[in-house]
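> example.struct
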C-alpha cells in the first residue's frame, strides 16, 4: 500500500490520473487514523527486532532504528495526510524547516553509505557487514592514518546520522499522536508554575519557558525522574527543547544553580539512567558535558567492544543502578552487597560516567580521563578527598580486571602488589563495583562465571591482606594439617607419601580443600590414569581433574579432545610429580551450562580422555574448522612478551594474537618441538583477539634462560601464529 503513496504522474492523461486518486479516496483505502496507528505499530515491531538500538556492530542501514525506513515512515504519514485539505491543516508544523534540513543531511549520509555498500557487495546489501566496512570507509575517508581509523570514522558518521533520524522521528511520531488524539487520555496535573502533565506527557506552560529560564532544560529531566508514570515529553515541549538547547553554553555550565540541578539528578532515586539516555538522545547531556558529546557515536573497530562508548557508559551506570536497587543480586551478588555500603554513591556514578571519557583521542584514555574528570569535579565543587578518589578510579578502572585475568592469584606477591596500589578497603569496594559494572557492560559474552570468580577471588584475598597479611600467608604446613582432618579414611603415612611426590609449586597454589579432594581421588584410583569432573560452585564452570603418566603431547592431547567436544577451557594448572606422573587441573567453561557430573556430556568427555590417555603414544587430535566469518576481517598482529620467574623456575609467556580454530593446538606443537613443558596456562578471548598466558620450563626443568633456545622458540611461535610455519 505504501508503494501507492509514492505514486506520481510523470506523463499521460490527467483525467486518468484524477480517476485513480478519486477511486482511492472513494474506497477510503487509507483511513488516516488507522493508517497512522498501523504504521506506528509496524515501526515499533521493526525496532524490537533490532533490540531498539542502532548501535549494532553490523547495523542494517535500511531497517535499524534511525535507518532509512524511519525516514520513509515520516514521509508516508505526511503524504497520506496531505491528500485532503482538512488533513493538511492538521499536519501543519508536524515537521519544521530545521528538522527537515537535519533529516535531509542524515538521509544523504545513509544513502551514500548504503550505495557504497551495494557497490562493494556487488548486490543489494543493506547490512553494513565487517567485510564491507573498511573498503567503504577508505572510499569516504581516504586520508585516515589506518584502515581501522577509517572504519571508526565511518561508523561514527553512521551512528550520528542514525541518532539524528531517531530524534526527529520520535518527535514527529509524538506530534502526530497528539494531533490525532492517539495518546492515552488523562486529566491535566500541575507540577509547578513551569510544567504540567497531560495524557502521560510532560509539557511546558510557556513555549518560550526555556528561553526565559534556561535551567528548566535540566529541571525537565528531574521532573521526569520524580514522576515515573510519565511516558515522555509533549511534542511542542520537545520542539522548544531542541530549539533552545544551544542555550547550554559555558555560562550555563558554570551557573551554580545548574550545577546543583545536575548533581541532584545524579542522586535521583528513580529512573536516573532513563533520564540520562533521554538527555543523550536529545543532545542535552552532550552539551552540558561537552566531553561526553565527543564520545557520542564513538566506536572501537573490534569484536570486543560491542557498544559505542556513550552507549557502553550508560550501560555501566545501568548496572550500578540495578546493583543499588537489589535487581542484580543473582548476577552480581557481592557487588550488590557492597554498593549500598559505599559512603557516597555519586562517586561511583561519576567514575562510571567518566571511566572511558578519554577514548577516541589517540592516547591513553585512562590518564586522559583522569585529567578530564578533574575538571568536572572542580566545576561541581567536589571536596578534594572525593576528587582524588574519583581521579584514581578513572585512571585505574582496568587495574582489577587486568590483574585478575592476566596474573597468577595464587602468588601472594601479586595480591600484595595489587593491594598496595589500591591502598585501603574502601577504595577496593569502589573499584570492585566499578569493575563489575564495566566488564559486564562491555560485552555480554565477557561476563561469565570464570571472570566473576577471578574478580571475587582477588577481592577476597585483597580484603584479607588489608585485615591480616599473616592469614594470607598461612603456611603450607597448616594447609596440610587441615586437609588431613578430611582424609581420616586413609593412613596418614599414605597421604604424606603422596604429598612427598609433588613439587613445592603444587602446594603454593592449593588450599586445604584442594589438597584433601585431590588426595582422595588419587588414593582411591592408584592404578593408572584417573579422570574426574569436579563441579564448581560457580554456574557454568567445572574442573577436569587428570592424574596420569607424564609424557610428550599430553597437554596437546587433552586440548584436542576438548576442542572436538566444543568445550572451552579458561585455566590450566599442570603439576609434574617426582614419580613420573602429573596432576592436571583444567577449568572449563560452557556458556550455556556446566558439564554436570551425571550428564551424558560428562560421561562422553571422560571416556574419550581415558581412551586417549591410556595409549602408549599420545597423538593429539587436530580439529579443523573454518574460521568464523567475522574473524577474517580483523588484522591482529602477534605479540609475545616474556619474563623469567626464577622463584618458580619457569618462563612466563604472554601471547596476544588473532583468535582462530586450532590456535592452542598450534601453540602446543611449537612447545613440543622445543621441548617446552607447560606448567600453567590461562586462556582468554576478547572478541577477535586471544590473550593467552603460559608458564613453561625447558627439558632441564628450568626457565628458558639460554638465549639461543629462547630466540628459536619465540621465532617459531611468531611464524606459526602468523601462518608462515607449515
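> example.seq
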Amino acid at each position: 500500500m505504501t508503494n501507492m503513496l509514492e505514486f506520481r504522474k510523470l506523463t499521460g492523461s490527467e483525467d486518468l490520473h484524477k480517476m485513480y486518486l478519486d477511486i482511492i479516496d472513494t474506497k477510503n483505502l487509507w483511513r488516516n487514523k488507522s493508517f497512522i496507528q498501523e504504521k506506528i505499530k509496524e515501526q515499533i515491531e521493526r525496532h524490537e527486532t533490532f533490540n531498539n538500538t542502532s548501535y549494532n556492530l553490523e547495523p542494517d542501514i535500511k531497517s535499524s532504528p534511525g535507518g532509512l525506513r524511519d525516514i520513509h515512515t515520516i514521509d508516508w504519514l505526511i503524504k497520506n495526510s496531505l491528500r485532503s485539505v482538512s488533513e493538511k491543516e492538521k499536519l501543519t508544523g508536524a515537521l519544521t524547516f530545521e528538522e527537515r534540513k537535519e533529516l535531509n543531511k542524515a538521509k544523504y549520509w545513509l544513502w551514500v553509505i548504503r550505495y557504497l555498500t551495494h557497490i562493494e557487495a556487488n548486490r543489494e546489501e543493506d547490512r553494513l557487514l565487517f567485510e564491507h566496512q573498511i573498503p567503504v570507509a577508505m572510499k569516504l575517508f581516504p586520508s585516515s592514518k589506518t584502515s581501522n581509523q577509517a572504519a571508526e570514522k565511518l561508523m561514527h558518521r553512521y551512528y550520528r546520522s542514525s541518532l539524528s533520524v531517531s530524534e526527529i522521528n520520535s518527535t514527529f511520531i509524538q506530534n502526530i499522536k497528539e494531533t490525532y488524539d492517539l495518546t492515552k487520555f488523562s486529566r491535566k496535573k500541575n507540577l509547578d508554575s513551569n510544567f504540567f502533565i497531560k495524557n502521560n506527557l510532560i509539557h511546558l506552560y510557556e513555549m518560550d519557558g526555556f528561553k526565559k529560564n534556561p535551567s528548566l532544560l535540566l529541571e525537565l529531566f528531574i521532573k521526569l525522574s520524580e514522576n515515573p508514570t510519565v511516558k515522555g515529553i509533549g511534542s511542542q515541549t520537545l520542539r522548544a527543547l531542541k530549539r533552545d538547547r544551544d542555550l547550554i553554553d559555558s555560562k550555563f555550565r558554570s551557573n551554580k544553580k545548574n550545577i546543583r540541578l545536575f548533581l541532584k539528578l545524579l542522586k535521583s532515586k528513580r529512573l536516573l539512567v532513563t533520564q540520562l539516555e533521554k538527555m543523550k538522545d536529545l543532545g542535552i547531556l552532550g552539551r552540558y558535558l561537552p566531553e561526553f558529546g565527543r564520545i557520542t557515536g564513538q566506536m572501537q573497530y573490534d569484536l570486543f567492544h560491542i557498544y559505542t562508548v556513550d552507549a557502553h557508559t550508560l550501560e555501566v551506570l545501568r548496572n550500578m543502578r540495578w546493583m543499588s536497587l537489589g535487581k542484580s543480586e543473582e548476577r552480581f551478588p557481592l557487588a550488590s552487597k557492597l554498593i549500598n555500603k559505599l559512603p557516597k554513591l555519586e562517586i561511583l556514578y561519576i567514575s562510571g560516567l567518566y571511566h572511558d571519557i578519554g577514548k577516541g583521542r589517540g592516547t591513553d584514555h585512562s590518564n586522559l580521563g583522569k585529567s578530564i574528570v578533574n575538571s568536572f569535579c572542580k566545576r561541581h565543587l567536589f571536596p578534594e578527598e572525593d576528587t582524588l578518589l574519583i581521579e584514581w578510579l578513572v585512571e585505574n578502572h582496568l587495574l582489577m580486571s587486568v590483574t585478575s585475568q592476566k596474573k597468577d592469584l595464587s602468588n601472594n606477591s601479586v595480591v600484595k602488589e595489587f593491594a598496595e596500589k589500591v591502598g585501603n578497603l574502601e577504595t577496593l569496594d569502589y573499584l570492585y563495583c566499578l569493575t563489575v559494572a564495566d566488564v559486564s557492560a562491555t560485552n555480554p559474552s565477557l561476563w561469565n562465571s570464570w571472570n566473576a570468580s577471578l574478580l571475587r577471588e582477588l577481592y577476597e584475598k585483597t580484603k584479607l591482606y588489608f585485615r591480616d597479611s599473616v592469614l594470607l600467608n598461612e603456611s603450607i604446613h597448616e594447609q596440610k594439617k587441615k586437609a588431613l582432618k578430611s582424609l581420616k579414611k586413609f593412613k596418614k603415612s599414605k597421604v604424606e607419601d603422596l604429598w612427598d611426590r609433588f613439587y613445592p609449586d603444587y602446594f603454593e597454589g592449593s588450599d586445604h580443600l584442594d589438597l584433601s579432594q585431590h588426595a582422595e581421588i588419587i588414593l582411591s584410583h592408584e592404578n593408572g590414569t584417573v579422570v574426574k569432573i569436579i563441579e564448581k560452585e560457580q554456574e557454568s564452570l567445572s574442573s577436569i581433574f587428570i592424574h596420569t603418566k607424564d609424557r610428550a603431547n599430553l597437554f596437546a592431547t587433552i586440548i584436542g579432545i576438548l576442542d572436538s567436544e566444543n568445550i572451552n577451557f579458561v585455566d590450566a594448572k599442570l603439576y609434574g610429580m617426582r614419580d613420573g606422573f602429573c596432576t592436571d587441573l583444567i577449568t572449563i567453561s560452557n556458556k550455556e551450562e556446566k558439564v554436570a557430573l551425571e550428564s551424558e556430556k560428562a560421561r562422553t568427555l571422560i571416556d574419550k580422555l581415558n581412551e586417549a590417555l591410556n595409549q602408549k603414544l599420545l597423538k593429539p587430535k587436530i580439529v579443523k574448522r573454518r574460521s568464523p566469518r567475522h574473524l577474517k576481517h580483523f588484522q591482529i598482529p602477534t605479540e609475545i612478551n616474556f619474563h623469567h620467574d626464577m622463584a618458580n623456575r619457569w618462563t612466563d609467556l604472554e601471547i596476544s594474537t588473532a583468535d582462530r580454530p586450532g590456535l592452542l593446538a598450534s601453540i602446543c606443537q611449537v612447545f613440543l618441538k622445543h621441548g617446552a613443558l607447560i606448567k600453567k596456562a590461562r586462556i582468554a578471548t576478547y572478541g577477535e583477539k586471544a590473550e593467552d598466558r603460559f608458564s613453561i620450563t625447558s627439558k632441564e626443568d628450568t626457565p628458558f634462560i639460554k638465549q639461543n633456545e629462547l630466540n628459536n622458540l619465540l621465532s617459531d611461535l611468531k611464524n606459526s601464529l602468523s601462518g608462515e610455519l607449515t
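> remarks
The chain is about 55% helix and 10% strand.
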